[in-house]
Design brief:
Layout (H helix, E strand, L loop, with lengths): L3 E6 L5 H12 L2 E4 H9 L3 H8 L1 H15 L5 E4 L8 H8 L2 E7 L2 H8 L13 H16 L4 E4 L5 H16 L1
Parallel strand pairs: 1-3, 1-4, 2-3, 4-5
Bound molecules: shikimate-3-phosphate.
Shikimate-3-phosphate (S3P) binds next to loops.
Length: 171
């Protein structure tokens, strides 16, 4: 494959689980930006936010996106805030097909509730936070090559749709 497959979209839209399965099915390597950051820093994303702050996290995220986007033929899952940054977007776009997974605030709330791993949603009113961030980020997510509405889809259906989209381009 000449391209990377990059999955973007808000927290809780299924990027990691879908990405892993797409990679398995296509026999490609799966790389998750947040997981690489955690390994580099020897700390969880939550700890990095708490101890060093969001700006520090964004700096390491940018450096990691730059490194990973130089690869070819891999599936990459990118944290929900990364694509907002112009440099990240341009680095990823260079040799990738970018697919955005979309979901409504209610679906996102349902999929992320109870999880304490996402510092940005660890607030008294996560629904309001989700709506606010989605509004700010909507136009950035729309810059993806394709968007998939995952609200009514099972993981397997999203995986199939991603593979269909990618094979259209490669054929
Ligand atoms: C973030 C999304 C998270 C993680 C960090 C910030 C965001 O990744 O990078 O907590 O700004 O939307 P996931 O989208 O994989 O949850």
């Amino acid at each position: 494959m000449r391209h990377n497959i990059v999955l973007v979209g808000f927290m809780g839209t299924g990027k990691s689980v879908v990405g892993k399965r797409v990679a398995e099915k296509l026999g490609l390597k799966f790389l998750e930006i947040d997981e690489i950051i955690e390994k580099k820093e020897g700390a969880s994303i939550k700890e990095i936010f708490e101890k060093k702050g969001e700006l520090y996290f964004r700096r390491i995220e940018k450096e990691t996106v730059k490194e990973v986007s130089q690869k070819i033929g891999v599936v990459i899952s990118v944290g929900g805030g990364a694509i907002i940054d112009e440099e990240n977007f341009n680095n990823l776009k260079r040799n990738s097909v970018i697919i955005c997974l979309e979901a409504s605030p209610d679906t996102i709330l349902e999929r992320t509730k109870g999880l304490r791993t996402r510092p940005l949603l660890n607030v008294p009113d996560p629904k309001q936070k989700i709506e606010g961030l989605l509004k700010k980020r909507a136009s950035y997510y729309k810059r993806a090559d394709y968007c998939i509405d995952t609200n009514r889809l099972m993981t397997g259906q999203v995986v199939t749709r991603v593979i269909e989209l990618v094979s259209q381009i490669s054929s």
